[in-house]
Amino acid sequence: MSRRGVTPTGAYSEDYAASRATAKATKRHRRDEALFRSLTSAIPFGANIADIGAGGGTLAATLREHGWSVDAWDGCPLPAFGVAKWDLTQPHPDRTRWYRWGLFIEVGEHVPELHQQQLAKHISQIVTEGLVISYATPGQPGRGHVSCKTPEEVLALFAPHGWRMNEGATNMARHVAGGGWQKKLLVLNRKGAYEFGTLGHTTLGKVCPLAQARHNHPGRHTG
User: Fold this and answer.
1) Which among 174, 200, 197, 187 is positioned nearest to 40, based on CA atoms?
2) Of 106, 139, 143, 140, which is closest to residue 2 (Cα–Cα)?
3) How far apart are alpha carbons 43 and 49 in whole angstroms?
4) For the chain, what are the domain ranges?
5) 63-70 long-range contacts, Cβ below 8 Å, gap at least 24?
6) Would you say 160 and 218 are in contact if contact means Cβ atoms under 8 Å apart?
7) Class of the 14-216 domain?
């Protein structure tokens, strides 16, 4: 299995990451747009978010534009795109930092199996309430896919750190995202944390305006 353009810990090489980021900045992928619509159904409006394995930072940028506070992290930093360095095989570089929610989208499959338990631990150390996760599934083609997992395997990896699947939020997120996300996207909550449901309610009763609009008028809002 080719590892060309991928470092031993799963990050893209600097040249390859920069070329991907430039392409996405020119024309944001439909995948990011579909994910954004999905995330507004699951994450409390205004919550601070860690986008872990952010690549070129396009999804983080879209969330910021619509009112979320997002820090983007990747094993290959791209400062020009607002993405800082975090090697997931190591603890977060700022031990005092924490986030209510984390995104870990199509990243884990690039990290060798040797480091999977480490990354689950390190992510869980900085994210307190919710995670939106997807891994490439077994047999899914892609550059540097060395640790593909089923959703059940992903849940088993994170469960020892207090995470459980929010079934209602997962089903809604998959439905809104559509396509290949319908079988692998997971919304996890920490045991004991408030479950936000399908409209992104916070404990203060805030709701994402885009999610509320789509709920009131299905089909009329595309993000």
Assistant:
1) 200
2) 143
3) 9
4) 14-216
5) 63/36, 63/39, 66/36, 66/40, 66/210, 67/208, 68/43
6) no
7) alpha beta
pLDDT at position 211:
42
List 51's β-bridge partners, or say none.
72, 103
Structural Rg of the chain based on CA atoms: 16
Residue 210, pLDDT above cutoff 60? no
Taking the CA of residue 38 as centre, how many other CA atoms within 13 Å lie in the half-sphere pointing to its CB?
Answer: 31
Query: Considering the entire predicted model, what is its pTM?
Result: 0.75
- One-letter amino acid of 79: P
Share of the chain above pLDDT 90, in %: 49
Q: How many CB atoms lie within 10 A of CB 97?
A: 12
Q: Model confidence over 153-186: pLDDT tens digits?
A: 999 999 999 999 999 999 999 999 988 888 899 9
What DSSP line would sit under 155-186, residue for residue?
A: HHHHGGGTEEE-HHHHHHHHHHH-GGGGGT-E
Q: How many C-beta atoms surround the C-beta of residue 108 within 10 A? A: 26
DSSP state letter for 12 = B
Pairing mode of beta strands 186-190, 127-134: antiparallel
What's the rounded Cα separation, in Å, for the pair 111 and 146? Answer: 7
